[in-house]
Amino acid sequence: MAEALVSIGLAANIFQFVGYGISIISDTREIYHSASGAKDENVELEHVISNVVDINEQIIAGASAYQLLDILQKLKPSNDANFSKLEALHKALKSAAKKREIEDLERRLRKIENQASFRLMALLSGKSTLMKYAIEHEATLGALEDWAGSKHLVTASYFFWGIGSFLQKSYEGLLRSLLYQIFKSCPVLLTESCMQADHRSQWTIQDLDRILHLVLTRAVAKTKFCFFIDGLDEYQGDITDVLDSIRQMAEISNVKLCISSRPWDAFQIAFRASCYKLCVENLTRHDLQRYVRDGLTKDTLFQKVVQQEPHCEDLISNITNKAEGVFLWVYLVVRNLLRDL
Fold first, then answer.
1. Torsional sign, CA 318, 323, 327, 329
2. What are the beta bridge partners of residue 228?
3. Contact at 8 Å (CB) between 7 and 60?
4. For 272-306, what is each residue's pLDDT tens digit?
């Protein structure tokens, strides 16, 4: 019985070794016949690394990216086009030895790449860029000063950020940020508000909400406020809290609001009475479509694909429609599409 078990174990080891040998031989052939002198999956992985590094060299992925890139470079044969099969075998063996380390780093990098792409798309989406531009433009300040007249003008802004910290995506964060900017611009309001507030070490959301509306209503005679609030769609929580607060502020005569969001139903319904609306995707559609058309139609490989499959030209309008005004998304899609042709 013992001899039978030994035989089975030996056979299993042989099969495992043979399987490993087949894998090495397959990798050797792939490397030897590859135009780049590397395994296809390693070439693809280098593209991922390039994306991560290109997106933002300052993110924590930098060390992992360069570490993995160094491994992949060492797995490539020499620059000599006539490298031997023995060298290809050597590289295949090294690739197998580094397989687990490569897979672990690859998982980390793909996760970071997705997060970084999402983060940049959030930061560089059309509405946020336009909001920031409006806040900083001198014409905005000039118009607000004309509106304020002899009264003190207070401006404050808040950008909801869905993947940020709690205070960057919550109602409490909005209230605290607006109050901080108000009190910094007009310290006398802080003194008056604190006299009416409970003397506690930390105010609750209810305290913050009450104090904000107290400040706005009591300062009608001397102060005018303009608040820029971006990214309502990235708010984490019960959206009715924010919408109710915005409605209450909008009813105060000395308050102006500039709000931005993706066109979700809840916001369309909440602000349908307002006659002042701007759809960024309608304004940028022509430019986005021209960028997609130029990028695709000027590529020789895409031209050949269209000759064989004319319906591929529909990609131009499909990409433009799905972009919803986000240029960075269009850039990434066009780049990746042309790269993978």
1. negative
2. 157, 258
3. no
4. 888 888 887 788 889 899 999 999 999 999 988 88
User: In this structure, what token pair is assigned to residue 202?
Assistant: 């930390």
| 308-340 pLDDT per residue, tens | 988 888 999 999 988 877 788 898 899 988 888
Closest CA to 108 of 154, 62, 146, 158: 62
Kindly tell me the burial class for residue 87, based on how many C-beta atoms sit within 10 Å of its own C-beta (0-12, 13-18, 19 or more).
middle
Cα distances (Å, whole numbers) of residue 44 to 39, 60, 188, 294, 337: 9, 21, 60, 26, 14
Roughly what angle, to the nearest 10 degrees, separates helices 327-339 and 99-124? Answer: 140
Nearest to 122 by CA among 224, 315, 262: 262
Euclidean distance between CA atoms 15 and 11, whole angstroms: 6
DSSP-derived secondary structure for 196-223: HS---SS--HHHHHHHHHHHHHHTTTTE
Is residue 330 within 8 Å of residue 323, measured between CB atoms? yes
Distances 183 to 7, 216, 227, 230 between C-alpha atoms, Å: 82, 12, 14, 21
